[in-house]
Amino acid sequence: MVEHLLTRIEVNMNSFSKGQKRIANYIEKHYDQAAFMTASKLGKTVGVSESTVVRFATELGYSGYPKLQRAMQEMIRDKLTSVQRIDVTTNRIGDDDVLDSIMNQDIDKIRRTLEETSHDDFNSSVKAIVNARRIYIFGVRSTASLAQFLGYYFGLIFDNVRVITDTSKTHTYEQLFRISKEDVMIGISFPRYSTMAVESMSLARERGANVIAITDSMVSPLVAAADHILIARSDMASVVDSLVAPLSLINALIVATVLEKKDEVTDTFRELELVWNHQGVYDSLGSNTPDD
Q1: Are the C-beta atoms of residues 233 and 116 closer than 8 Å to each other?
Q2: What is the mean pLDDT of residues 107-130?
Q3: Which of 37, 82, 181, 292 could join 42 in a cystine, given CB atoms 3.0 to 4.6 angstroms apart?
Q4: What gap in Å lies between CA 109 and CA 16, rounded to an integer?
Q5: Residue 272 — pLDDT band, cuts 50, 70, 90?
Q6: Which of 209, 10, 192, 15 is nearest to 200 (CA)?
């Protein structure tokens, strides 16, 4: 099956009806606009019925219009500027309640992440992390918070964690130059993708390290260098990057790692509890769970 949307259109162009060709021509020229239109709106824009748009999607091999729409969104996920994101967000929310709209969109991202993330890759990632000599975590800009969160908890579990959130190429390579086949590299990046994330993961792969990518799709540039791919849906067309699904995935990764090293981690946290209590880290009415 041909994967790329524009290739599918080219292959099927001669078999399209006149109405379907109008849709195809519009998508080829304006997929950045069509990606966020409903089937009804796309039909009105090109002068065909909504049912023609739906049939066009199935003619291309998609199970329905939503799948075609996602394919268009994949094409622009890393191309929207911040200003364009504001315009798209305004159009998507329209007159809807902002709180309801944004939270429902985040719920959908978690659901899609659960559907699309490979359990095999997840489980193999946990084993690679547990068996690693050193664990490198890379995340810059908006994903730096994810890298630091993962690094904080892994730092309580392991004594071999290095978190890299610096966009300086020189500083990044200085931290990575000892990475080897006994190590694990966890790279985190979402649209618009970090060039340094791609380069750092490629370097880790060249040195033989086990590379884990936490990203948004199989066409992400991080995938090429990864041994294990963990898909977490973000929002390529919002004013801010939605990190709800990636954070949920990282929570699962932390919990799975703890369970894999249960006895050792239990002993570690028992000692930490003594230190926290002695130092008065937490208020007596507060929680005794590790946080800032």
Answers
A1: yes
A2: 90
A3: 37
A4: 33
A5: confident
A6: 209
User: Within its chain, how far is the Cα of 125 from the centroid?
Assistant: 16
What is the identity of the amino acid at 4? H
Q: Across the strands, what pairs with 231?
A: 215
Domains of the chain: 1-76 (1.10.10.10), 113-260 (3.40.50.10490)
Angle of helix 82-93 versus helix 98-116 axis, rounded to 10: 110
Closest of 265, 278, 286, 275 to residue 155, by C-alpha: 265
Share of the chain above pLDDT 70, in %: 87
The residue count of the chain comes to 292
pLDDT-derived band of residue 44, with 50, 70 and 90 as boundaries?
very high
DSSP-derived letter for residue 186 is: E
Model pTM score: 0.69
DSSP per position, 37-54: --HHHHHHHHT--HHHHH
Crossing angle between the packed helical segments 18-34 and 65-76, to the nearest 10 degrees: 50
Respond yes or no on whether the N-terminal peptide bond of residue 192 is cis (omega within 30° of 0).
yes
Looking up tokens 């973000």, which residue turns up? 234
212-230 per-position pLDDT tens digit: 999 987 778 899 899 999 9
Task: Evaluate if residue 2 carries a pLDDT over 50.
Answer: no
